[in-house]
Amino acid sequence: MNRTDRLYGLVEELRAVSPRPRSARRLAERFEVSVRTIERDLAALQHSGLPIWAEPGRTGGYVIDASATLGPAGFTLDEALAVLIGLGGLQHSPFRQSARTAARKVLAVMPDGDAARASALASRVHFLESDDAVVVPTAFAAALRSDRVVRLRYQDAGGAESVRDVEPLGSIEKDGQWYLVAWCRLRDGVRAFRGDRMRSVEVTDERPSKRSLRPEELAIPYGRLRSVMND
């Protein structure tokens, strides 16, 4: 059994007996590997975000939340490399923290040899960035996913600040700049707010009515919008 299959098997074995614990020794016997290998595998699963914990004592062992599952991990080497490069490109984006943890999870559920190879190959890929690369606040990501009205303290190109209640509709990235596309209640229309000009981002409790975003409302003078999920 390769490591990927064993990781899936460990998750299913723990789920089958949950909430009762299963000892590392018994798991090692079940999968015909050493206790040390099982402990290393379980640590990798924990690192990937799965709710696995150890219960101490003579009858203790490892326990998993019965609702937990391990997502697909059958990446080829090229697929894993592509994912790591894509996540690495988000270093200055509002999604950088999640990108870092996602990269660790990708490697954690891969066979050791493949993970080492993918990591080594990814280390050869570099991004050429300017010294003054802008860093967008991570609260931008919270605003995008919140499905709530967001209160922005925003500085425009001329340096003037204003406070605006906006309804997030999407996001656009261009040449390293991230824009939150939203319905601006102050201007009563769709506006694009540059991430590095956001001085504060507050997600309110108000859930706005559903709005659809039409590309023509953005008045983009050049270029073509492409969704992340397009083939």
Task: Please give a handful of descriptors for the protein shown.
231 residues, alpha+beta, 5-stranded antiparallel β-sheet, two-stranded antiparallel sheet, elongated
Can you describe what's shown?
There is one protein chain. This protein is of the alpha+beta class. The protein is 34% helix and 21% strand. The chain contains seven helices and seven strands. The strands form two sheets. It has a five-stranded antiparallel sheet with strand order 6-5-4-3-7, covered by helices on one side. It has a two-stranded antiparallel sheet with strand order 1-2. The longest helix has 15 residues, at 3-17. The model has no long low-confidence stretch (mean pLDDT 85).
Helix and strand arrangement:
Blueprint: H1 3-17, H2 24-31, H3 35-47, E1 52-55, E2 61-64, H4 77-88, H5 96-108, H6 112-122, H7 139-145, E3 150-155, E4 161-174, E5 177-184, E6 189-194, E7 198-203
Antiparallel strand pairs: 1-2, 3-4, 3-7, 4-5, 5-6
Order of helices and strands: HHHEEHHHHEEEEE
- Low-confidence segments, ≥5 residues, pLDDT <50? none
CA-CA gap between termini: 34 Å
User: How many strand segments?
Assistant: 7
Task: Please work out how many helical segments DSSP would assign.
Answer: 7
Record the strand order, biggest sheet: 6-5-4-3-7
Largest beta-sheet characterization: 5 strands, antiparallel
Give the helix level as a range of percent: 25-40%
Instruction: Estimate the strand proportion.
Output: 15-25%
Instruction: Estimate the mean pLDDT confidence.
Output: 85
What is the radius of gyration computed over CA atoms, rounded to a whole number of angstroms?
Answer: 23 Å
- Derived from helix and strand composition plus strand pairing, the structural class reads alpha+beta
Describe the global form: elongated
